[in-house]
């Protein structure tokens, strides 16, 4: 019985510890991103270059851009919740003034109509605009509920796929997304989530897994030393 318990412990203990460390690292990574955002976003805004930008140097920095929106290539990112309401993130490419370079601007959250088959109207400012926002990295991992089209243009997407966007337009795109400042005109709801959102929950999960590891070790030790 002790041998069987030891074998079971040898399987469970590393698994529990590994899961705990995984959750703890996720919490630490989110906390580090929040600290970076808090530091960089308070610096003076920098002008977004018209040549391909260095992602790491711009991440979480406040940028200022001037140009013209391309309303024809605006997309709505579906299934975005705000205060438990369904809606969309409005993504509009902006052509940088004096260049063919574009950058995608997340203009905020827009509520979905009661009939989800009806697309909301997301008006696009015309003419030259000047705006500020925070440069963030596009999502690297996402899950599509259905196969996404490889040709043609769709006004509603499940996820913001920068690779797909690049293949659908004829102009170059910067490798960052601008989250439009809440005070900037021409946007919608911009209560942007914090990078460290749910970090405390990850730590709680980590402590639970570590607790399972300690409990497993304690139970095995109890049965090992108790008298027949």
Polypeptide structure, described:
With 228 residues, this protein is an alpha/beta fold. It has 2 domains: 2-29 and 200-225; 44-194. The protein has 4 helices and 8 strands. The protein has helices at 2-40, 55-58, 162-168, 199-225; strands at 46-47, 62-69, 75-82, 85-96, 102-111, 128-136, 156-157, 173-180. It has a 5-stranded mixed beta barrel. The longest helix is centred in the N-terminal third of the chain and has 39 residues, at 2-40. The radius of gyration is 24 Å and the shape is elongated. The mean pLDDT is 85.
Major sheet attributes? 5 strands, mixed, barrel
* Net shape: elongated
Give the strand order of the largest sheet, numbering strands 1, 2, ... along the chain. 2-4-5-8-6
Q: What are the secondary-structure elements, in order, as H or E?
A: HEHEEEEEEHEH
Report the uncertain regions: none
Give the number of domains.
2
- Kindly report the average pLDDT value: 85
Strand-residue proportion? 25-35%
Total number of strands: 8
Summary of the model, kept short:
It contains four helices and eight strands. By secondary structure, it is an alpha/beta fold.
List keywords for this structure.
228 residues, alpha/beta, 2 domains, five-stranded mixed β-barrel, 4 helices, 8 strands, 34% helix
């Amino acid at each position: 019985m002790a041998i069987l318990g030891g074998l079971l412990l040898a399987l469970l203990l590393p698994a529990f510890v590994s899961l705990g460390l995984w959750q703890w690292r996720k919490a630490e990574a989110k906390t580090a991103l929040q600290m970076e955002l808090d530091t960089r976003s308070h610096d003076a805004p920098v002008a977004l270059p018209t040549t391909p930008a260095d992602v790491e140097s711009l991440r979480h920095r406040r940028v200022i851009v001037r140009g013209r929106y391309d309303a024809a290539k605006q997309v709505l990112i579906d299934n975005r919740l705000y205060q438990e309401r369904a809606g969309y993130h409005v993504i509009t490419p902006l052509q940088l003034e004096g260049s063919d370079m574009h950058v995608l601007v997340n203009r905020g959250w827009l509520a979905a109509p009661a009939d989800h088959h009806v697309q909301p109207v997301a008006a696009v400012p015309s003419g030259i605009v000047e705006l500020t926002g925070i440069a963030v990295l596009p999502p690297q991992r996402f899950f599509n509920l259905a196969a996404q089209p490889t040709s043609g243009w769709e006004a509603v997407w499940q996820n913001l796929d920068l690779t797909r966007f690049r293949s659908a337009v004829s102009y170059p795109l910067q490798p960052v997304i601008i989250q439009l400042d809440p005070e900037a005109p021409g946007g919608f709801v911009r209560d942007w989530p914090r990078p460290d959102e749910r970090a405390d929950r990850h730590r709680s999960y980590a402590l639970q897994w570590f607790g399972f590891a300690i409990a497993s070790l304690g139970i095995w030790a109890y049965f090992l030393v108790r008298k027949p």
